[in-house]
Amino acid sequence: MTTVERLLLGSFVRPAEETGTGAPRVEGVYGYLVRHPDGLVLLDTGIGAGDEETERWYQPRRVPLQAALATAGASLDDLTLVVNCHLHFDHCGGNPLVGGTPILAQRAELSVARAGDYTFPELLDHQGSNYQALDGEAEPLRGVHVIPTPGHVDGHQSLVVVGPDGTVVLAGQSHDTASAWSADALAARATTLGHAGPLPVAPAWMDRLLAFDPRRVVFAHDAAVWESPDTTRTR
User: What pTM, to 2 d.p., does this model score?
Assistant: First the structure.
């Protein structure tokens, strides 16, 4: 049976200059462990060490990847596959710890990250690193789909996990919050709901994700979970 478990990888303070609210905001950093019959898949590896300016700006507090995995009864050696939603330092910080375990990233994202002024290079190409560059969608394990979801960055990707209890979208940072996802999901369906224009425009890839009929959607920086309004079961 395929299951998904959230891992707390740390937190940081997003300064007022970045929140758009005039006030700072503390945000969690979450990874997700997918237990699949063919192995363990990890989405995102946590907050890497930045330079002094970055440390002062974001005040990150880290949960070591080994400790986060241990809360789920797993270890680095157990991982079959790693997926980064993108390669900013708060999503790929633990990549150097995974050795030669394959890491999936969009080819365009890898290119931008390796060009400089994007992430910290020591977090990216570690000794023995085994990046598998993708050009669009992929299904690395049966029922585990990598879907490009550009927006936060051009090379962003999300993970769709089809399981016996319904489909879960691991959205990464395609949306900062569950509320933002909900707004786009409603925008994508506005016409079928009977609304007339002018209407908000959702990202083009929302239709692709919604085609999986997700029961739940989870996020990299929000502990809230979006649940389908069509879900009548309770957990």
Answer: 0.96
